[in-house]
Amino acid sequence: MISKTLLLRETKSNYKIMLIFLAVLTMYGSMVIAMFDPKLGESLQSMAESMPQIFAAFGMAGISNTLIDFMANYLYGMIFILFPLIFIILVSNRIIARYIERGSMAYLLATPTKRSTVAFTEALFLIKGCFALVLYVTVLCITVSAILFPGELDVGRFIILNIGLFGVYLCFSSICYCSTCLFSDSKYPYGIGASLCVVFVLVKMISQVSEKAEKFKYLTPLTLFDATGIIKAESSGYLGIVILYVIGIVLYGIGIRYFSRRDLSI
């Protein structure tokens, strides 16, 4: 079901991209956590009130009296969404469609490896990349919090929050993966899968700017990731996580099934 050779090859081909994004997330994650100070809550709230639309667009409009609320506002509202999305777009374009476009898929399928095995292995590689990002930011934030603010972070809730974050990555990566399975030319996955994910992020930002635009939140799956609801253990927050996982699994399944049966011009 899995080609270990192909999985290892993809890992070697993409580890530098992974390291770059881990470095970026390390920088932003550490900086934001270091800024936490309950005494500055009123100052940040004053800044948010002076620029309400900008703060709201990036999901930073809430009041943060605890460390986990602060991290949810300033990291999980946009930073831990946008940068991993760029990683997903870059990596998803480097699998399947690129092999077909360059003609190397013919050599790959000429081996005893089944086409479904190739599709499943590529999907597993992308999912593993997303999981590695979530696992890294989880450990990073817990470690930095323990060093700078020992005892301040609710680790249990924080881990659940990151389980929800993985749901977002799974959903976005499945959209890009499914797109790359549907088209042979790499420009189409960029044009459809990647663009759709970017539009979802922009719609989320617009929906947070004003009450009039709030109805647009129903047009993006990002609304299903309710960080505040997850931290407060609300059932709607957990339900959103489940739906994100279901979307991801279904789209990955569609992509694998379609690629396994499609007529490739190679």
Note down, in words, how this protein is organized.
- With 266 residues, the protein is mostly helical.
- It has helices at 4-34, 41-50, 52-57, 67-74, 79-92, 97-102, 104-109, 115-148, 155-182, 187-207, 227-231, 235-261.
- It has one domain (4-261).
- Helices cover 74% and strands 0% of the residues.
- The model has no long low-confidence stretch (mean pLDDT 86).
- Keywords: Membrane, Transmembrane, Transmembrane helix.
- It comes from Lachnoclostridium phytofermentans (strain ATCC 700394 / DSM 18823 / ISDg).
- The chain crosses the membrane at residues 15-36, 74-96, 123-149, 155-178, 190-209, 238-259.
- This is Membrane protein, putative.
Briefly say what this structure is:
This protein has 266 residues and is mainly α. It has 12 helices and no strands. 38% of the residues are buried.
Biggest pleated-sheet summary: none
**What quaternary form is this?**
single chain
Could you say which overall geometry the principal axes of the C-alpha atoms support? elongated
**Total of DSSP H or I helical runs spanning 4+ residues:** 12
Integer average pLDDT: 86
The domain tally reads 1
**Terminal residue distance:** 23 Å
Write down how many β-strands occur, each being a DSSP E stretch of 2 or more residues: 0
Low-confidence runs of at least 5 consecutive residues:
none
Order of helices and strands: HHHHHHHHHHHH
Task: Give the class from helix and strand content and strand pairing.
Answer: mainly alpha
The value of Rg in angstroms is 20 Å
Portion in beta strands: under 5%
In percent, how helical is the residue content?
over 70%
